Every structure is written in C-alpha cells, then in structure tokens.
Hints:
Layout lengths: L6 H8 L4 E2 L9 E2 L6 H15 L5 H10 L4 H26 L19
Antiparallel strand pairs: 1-2
Helix pairs in contact: 1-4, 2-3, 2-4, 3-4
Amino acid sequence: MHRFRSRDAYARFTGTAPIPVWSGNTAGKVRLNRGGNRTLNSALHMIAITQSRGIGPGAAYLDKLTAGGKTHTEAIWLLRRRISDAVYTALRTDQRNHVPDSPSQQRTGPAPASPN
Length: 116
C-alpha cells in the first residue's frame, strides 16, 4: 500500500479511474479506463455485478444512480469505483494494524549455511 499516495492513485492502478473525454461539446463526459491491473479490475467488476443482483449494498446504490439518469453501464462503473475505494480503505487499515514479526523472526539476508 505504500506505493499508492491516495485512493485516486489506487483507482488508476486498478483501472477504475475514469478518463475524461474532451472532443467537441462533450463537457463532463468520461470513458472507461482500459489500463491498469486487469486482474484487479476483473475482480472488482465481478463484485459489482454480484452486488447489482441484490447481494450486498450495491443494489440500492445502482437504483439511486439509475433513478438519477445514469445508464446501467455508467452505474456499474461508479459502483466499481466505490468498491475500489472500499478495498483501498480496508488495505490501508490492515497496513496500519499490521504488527511486524519479532526481530528474531525477521531476516533481511539469506539464511546462514549449516556447518556439515
């Protein structure tokens, strides 16, 4: 987690950060980010699809977004970003709560050779 300075940087790494589109009169439009770690993006997408089917808190969020005028695809993108933010928060919390092993268990170099 030390590689990511913010949840936005983590979202860019996972491919859930939107990319703005600036052609013509499309102010405020974004497109899908096809970059980032595709494995993480796929896992986040499967979580979003599962939650969209009523398992978890994502269904209510999707209903709110579609009622507000978003398409189903845009709502899934936003849910996936929200899940990415939740994963980032959980990873940061886990990192803060991690207690390193005792100094006798930590090794920085190769194991000593056994005398035979």
